[in-house]
Specification:
ten-stranded mixed β-sheet; alpha+beta; cell projection; about 350 residues; ATP binding; cytoplasm; ATP-binding; cytoskeleton; Kinesin
């Protein structure tokens, strides 16, 4: 559970720096080295969230860290070593099928990317840039996003593969297949009991799986022109995310901290995931290379702070009275007939 970060520039013979060791120790719920398999990472981080999603709770998993440390590999994986997306969805459908006798369920998904601070729908890229809106209940919605209803994990995987081909990726000096955007896969599970009742309750659980673009230094990626602008946008949204994590982790301290979720589209979309009604897992990625010492240190500091964030999780239940719509229709008809009389 411990990560020990050693300073590569430390010289044991340097008398002036003898007592200024920058060796830092961080403690986390779980730490994986290079030998860890995709299955191990999935079981330790995400598997326990599935039961909650089915019971009507929200959950979020996001991959965080500098460029080239393996975030997309953890989330998407390869054909022979599938990542968290695939494993979570397979287990989700297995768990839903086990309750199929008592419950009716529907699963819908949307897949989007935030590129240069604009939102693109990866399932329907021709729809152009989309806007974030707030609904009457105060939750953030994306106007015009494609929501696809599916009945098995294979369908979702085909849609994911298709969506991922539309994702913006470009080579940089630091990473051959650098993701230039943040992607968010949102899976909504709606369940209601098969036993018809008048005041029937519907459970709605949302699962967000976020693959962030990597933070990067222009000197390291040797970016110029368009790539440089992309990097600036990526760093801007990650800085906004870092500021939110800082403010949330210090909440409940001596002074109240304002949490600025509106600083970027990414933080606005993840508002509930970060400090609201959601069980959240952050998978922080670092590189063992000595050249990435500063990036690794910053990532570990942020992940360590994120541990202090407390979220309030409540079940999303909605009453579905099957007679409500019928009564509303009859009332409208009565009004209409009164006018005619």
């Amino acid at each position: 559970q411990r990560v020990v970060l050693m300073d590569p520039s430390e010289d044991p013979d340097n008398v002036l720096r003898a007592n200024r060791s920058r060796e830092k120790t961080f403690v986390f719920d779980m730490v994986f080295d290079h030998r860890a398999t995709q299955e191990e990472v999935y079981v330790s981080t995400t598997k326990s969230l599935i039961e909650g999603v089915i019971s009507g709770y929200n959950a979020t998993i996001f991959a965080y860290g500098p460029t080239g440390t393996g975030k997309t590999y953890t989330m998407l994986g390869t054909d022979c070593e599938p990542g968290i997306y695939v494993r979570t969805l397979e287990d989700l459908f297995k768990a839903l099928e086990a309750t199929a006798e008592e419950m009716d369920y529907t699963v819908s998904m949307s897949y989007l990317e935030i590129y240069n601070e604009v939102i693109r729908d990866l399932l329907n890229p021709s729809s152009g840039f989309l806007d974030l809106r707030e609904d009457s209940r105060g939750s953030i919605q994306i106007a015009g996003i494609t929501e696809v209803s599916t009945t098995n994990a294979q369908e979702i995987m085909q849609l994911l593969t298709q969506g991922n081909k539309q994702r913006t990726q470009e080579p940089t000096a630091a990473n051959k297949t650098s993701s230039r955007s943040h992607t968010v896969l949102q899976v909504t599970v709606t369940q209601k009991s098969r036993r018809q009742a008048i005041g029937e309750e519907m459970r709605i659980g949302k699962l967000f799986m976020v693959d962030l673009a990597g933070s990067e230094r222009a000197a390291q990626t040797q970016n110029q022109g368009k790539r440089m602008k992309e990097g600036a946008h990526i760093n801007h949204s990650l800085l906004a995310l870092g500021n939110c994590i800082n403010a949330l982790s210090e909440k409940g301290g001596s002074r109240a901290h304002f949490v600025n979720f509106r600083d970027s589209k990414l933080t606005r979309l993840l508002k509930d995931s970060l400090g609201g009604n959601s069980r959240t897992v952050m998978i922080a990625h670092i590189s063992p290379a000595s050249t990435s010492f500063e990036e690794s240190r910053m990532t570990l500091v942020y992940a360590y702070r994120a541990k202090n964030i407390k979220t309030q999780v409540k079940c999303n239940l909605r009453n579905v009275d099957q007679y409500t719509s019928i009564i509303a229709d009859l009332r409208r008809e009565i009004e209409h007939l009164k006018e005619r009389v």
